Amino acid sequence: MHHLRAVEAIVVQGSLLKAAAVLGVSQPALTKNLQELEEILQQRLFDRLPRGVRPTEAGELFAKVGRRILAELRRLDEELDRISGEGGIVAVGTLPVAATGVLPGALTQLKAQHPHLRVRLEQGRTEDLLPKLAAGEIELIVGRLYEPSLPDGFLREPLWEEPISILARYDHPFFHLTQVSAEALRNYDLVLPTVSQRVGQEIEAFLTALALEPAASLRSSSYGFIREMLHGTDMISAMPRLMMAGDLLRGTLRVVPLPNFAPPRPAGIIRPRGVDLTLAAQAFLDALRSHVEEIGQRGLVDITKIYN
């Protein structure tokens, strides 16, 4: 087991020194561990570089299989927890919009229904999470469903839409206009989220379609800051509306009713094809579906027409 974890850490960190720090051992001890393993396998697992190390073909293979073994052992641990009455664990990867938009409500439902079930969340980009899904480190990914450039064997199940929308506080002057139009939006300053390149490009295209100028907008990576600006000023924002799902459900923010200039943005789950979910993962998925349906019934996303 310590050989498996050592190789995984070295591959991820690309350096014996950094891997040793992550593992909590000295570099000489980790080097000795690696040398022992290479002697057992009669294979060189890493090429030493001027700065760091690079896995050989054998090293990549060992790390790939090692991840699967470690993932299966974690799954065994979780199933043993479940049958012993401790509820089990589900490991979920999440994209940022889903993490702030749908997961809080879904996890609240899950906790109420399965108080002893534990959830391990890992947030990241799709391209970072897919290798972990393939290795079994996480059981599913929640968030925006992007079409893969090449078939990857994963099952993508759409559950909701994440439309780019204009958001403003519930009593914004815009909502008191007798005639709602995109032109009227140009009278108000923008505060925009700093998001991933993909989402950022979609927001820019949406604003261009509305003939709004995003260049002079205020931008922030802090959702808390954007919320304060929206609630306390006449500023407006453009973002996937579920980023502010809690405020929209509470009624303190509203979606500006405009024609939909943005293309469909399906979101849902990604999971390995042909692999059964654990009972803990199925319970999580049931809670997610229930919460998303509730959001849809309150008008924030269109679910029943599209996917049910």
Kindly describe this structure.
With 308 residues, the chain is α/β, with parallel strands linked by helices. It folds into three domains: 65 residues, Winged helix-like DNA-binding domain superfamily/Winged helix DNA-binding domain (Arc Repressor Mutant, subunit A), CATH 1.10.10; 118 residues, D-Maltodextrin-Binding Protein, domain 2, CATH 3.40.190.10; 92 residues, D-Maltodextrin-Binding Protein, domain 2 (3-Layer(aba) Sandwich). The protein is built from twelve helices and twelve strands. The strands form four sheets. A five-stranded mixed β-sheet has the order 4-3-5-12-6, with helices on both faces. A hairpin with a 4-residue loop joins strand 1 and strand 2. The longest helix is centred in the first third of the chain and has 27 residues.
Instruction: Report strand %.
Output: 15-25%
Radius of gyration: 23 Å
Number of domains: 3
CATH architecture term of the largest domain: 3-Layer(aba) Sandwich
Distance between the termini: 45 Å
- Across the major sheet, the strand order is 4-3-5-12-6
User: How many strand elements?
Assistant: 12
CATH class of the largest domain: Alpha Beta
Looking at the structure, the CATH topology of the largest domain is: D-Maltodextrin-Binding Protein, domain 2
The largest pleated sheet is described as: 5 strands, mixed
Low-confidence segments, given as residue ranges, are: 304-308
* H/E element sequence: HHHEEHEHHEHEEEEHEHEHEEHH
The residue-averaged pLDDT reads 85
Q: What general form does the structure show?
A: elongated
DSSP helix fraction: 40-55%
- Quickly count the helices: 12
Please name the fourth-level CATH homologous superfamily of the largest domain. Periplasmic binding protein-like II
- Please state the structural category: alpha/beta
